[in-house]
C-alpha cells in the first residue's frame, strides 16, 4: 500500500455499521474524479475487512492505506477510473 497521497474528500461514517460504510464509500467514490483520494473515517471495526474486500473486488478503485487508531478506523481509497 502506498503512503504518498493527498486526500481530496473525507467521508465520516462514524456510528454506522455494516454495510453502510461500504455503501457510502462507493457513493462518495462515484462522485470523485480519477486519481482523487477519499478518506473514510469509521468506528465499525468490521470496516477494515469490509472496505478492503470491496476495494479488491471493485475495478476502478485502489485501497492505499488503512489505519487502526483504536476506536477509529481510517481508510484511504483512490479512484483509478
* Class inferred from helices and paired strands: alpha+beta
Number of domains: 1
Work out the radius of gyration. 11 Å
Spatial shape: globular
| CATH-level-4 superfamily name | TusA-like domain
Tally of helical runs: 2
CATH first level: Alpha Beta
Question: Low-confidence segments, ≥5 residues, pLDDT <50?
Answer: none
Compute the number of strand runs.
Answer: 4
Give the percentage of residues in beta strands: 25-35%
Please, could you describe this protein's structure?
This is UPF0033 domain-containing protein. Belongs to the sulfur carrier protein TusA family. Pfam families: TusA. InterPro entries: TusA-like (IPR001455), TusA-like_sf (IPR036868). There is one protein chain. The protein is α+β, with helices and mostly antiparallel strands and 81 residues long. It has a single domain, classed as Translation Initiation Factor IF3 (2-Layer Sandwich), CATH 3.30.110.40. The protein is 27% helix and 35% strand. The protein is built from two helices and four strands. Strands 1-2-4-3 form a four-stranded mixed beta sheet, with helices on one face. Helix 1 (20-30) links the parallel strand 1 (7-13) and strand 2 (37-42). The longest helix is centred in the N-terminal third of the chain and has 11 residues, at 20-30. The protein starts with 6 loop residues before the first strand and ends with a strand.
Amino acid at each position: 500500500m502506498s503512503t504518498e497521497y493527498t486526500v481530496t474528500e473525507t467521508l465520516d461514517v462514524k456510528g454506522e455499521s455494516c454495510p453502510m460504510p461500504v455503501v457510502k464509500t462507493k457513493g462518495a467514490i462515484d462522485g470523485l474524479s480519477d486519481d482523487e483520494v477519499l478518506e473514510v473515517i469509521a468506528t465499525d471495526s468490521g470496516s477494515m475487512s469490509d472496505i478492503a474486500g470491496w476495494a479488491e473486488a471493485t475495478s476502478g478503485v485502489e485501497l492505499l492505506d488503512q489505519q487502526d487508531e483504536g476506536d477509529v478506523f481510517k481508510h484511504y481509497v483512490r479512484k483509478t477510473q
